[in-house]
Design a protein that fits this description.
The protein has a single domain, classed as Nucleotidyltransferase, domain 5. The strands form two sheets. It has a five-stranded mixed β-sheet, with helices on both faces. A two-stranded antiparallel ribbon has the order 6-7. It is about 40% helix and about 20% strand. By secondary structure, it is α/β, with parallel strands linked by helices. The two termini are about 20 Å apart.
């Protein structure tokens, strides 16, 4: 059986300001979480009521790949579980590779444009607005698209041993990856 790489992203119910600052990420609440499993060959959408099923899928994965999952997504999930997800899940947080190689962080949008020629469909603030409006399907669609970009950027990096991004002058630049 092949390795199960699980690509993962989530959106929240509240902003850092709503919960008293970034040190309270675990209080932001998950609106929707999305995974794509290479073993199952399918996306899974998790509403807040199924957050523990999401945690279990991540814990069982051979590798969890995401963008800022160690410092954000896992910390949101730890508001629901006693598991120390950064320690228990074998993870590749692509934003850390970017920061290591470039000395600064990039938005996923910049990597999507550089590697794939596609950008994101919305922003996290849109997802927060949709949550307040009860538009869960819109959040799920947006989150699925982010998972797809994450997966395709990761696969691009694995295949090419480098990734591209657009800098602040919209110039395409490259950096090495060892994923």
């Amino acid at each position: 059986m092949d390795r199960d790489i699980v690509y993962f992203d989530l959106e929240t119910q509240r902003t850092s300001n709503d919960v008293g600052g970034w040190e309270n990420i675990s209080k932001m609440g998950m609106s929707v979480g999305v995974t794509y499993s290479t073993r199952l060959g399918e996306y899974r959408i998790y509403p807040e009521s199924k957050v523990l099923d999401l945690v279990e899928q991540l814990r069982r994965a051979d590798l969890v790949v995401g963008y800022n999952i160690l410092h954000f997504d896992y910390r949101v999930l730890m508001g629901y579980t006693i598991f120390d997800l950064p320690s228990e899940c074998r993870s590749l947080d692509m934003i850390l590779t970017v920061e290591e190689q470039l000395g600064h962080k990039l938005k996923l949008e910049s990597l999507g444009q550089g590697c794939l020629g596609v950008g994101k469909t919305a922003e996290g603030m849109d997802a927060l607005k949709w949550w307040k409006e009860g538009r869960i399907a819109d959040i799920a669609e947006y989150c699925c698209y982010d998972v797809k970009i994450t997966m395709q950027v990761h696969e691009f990096g694995v295949q090419n041993k480098k990734c591209f991004y657009l800098d602040k002058f919209n110039q395409k630049k490259a950096f090495s990856v060892d994923w």
